[in-house]
Amino acid sequence: MTAVSQPAGSVFTDIEGSTNLLSELGTEPYRKALAEHRRIVREVAITESRALARTATCGAGRPAV
Predict the structure, then answer these.
(1) What's 45's DSSP letter?
(2) Which of 36, 48, 50, 61 lies at a C-alpha separation of 20 to 30 Å from 11?
(3) Residue 1: is it exposed, middle or buried by C-beta count within 10 angstroms (0-12/13-18/19+)?
(4) Cβ–Cβ under 8 Å, residues 6 and 49
């Protein structure tokens, strides 16, 4: 077993009202907004912890965008 040199954890973000936002913006503008959200979260995670293992999307009940 390898010792962990830094604490490990998880971060979950939720875009409140994302289903309505998708309807209001349309697919392409929503896709761009979601990409920017993910970029910001990724940037902060890497800056603060110097690592990012993986990202995942819930997407339950939503179209793939």
Answers:
(1) H
(2) 61
(3) exposed
(4) yes
- At position 64, the amino acid (one-letter code) is A
Mention every residue, 6+ apart, whose C-beta is less than 8 A from residue 37: 13, 15
Residue 49, Cβ density class (10 Å: 0-12 exposed, 13-18 middle, ≥19 buried): middle
pLDDT by residue (tens digit) across 1-33? Answer: 566 566 667 777 888 899 999 999 999 999 999
Domains of the chain by residue range: 18-49
CB atoms < 10 A from the CB of 65, how many? 16
* 33's tokens: 């907004």
| pLDDT band of 61, cuts 50, 70, 90 | very low
3-state secondary structure of 24: helix
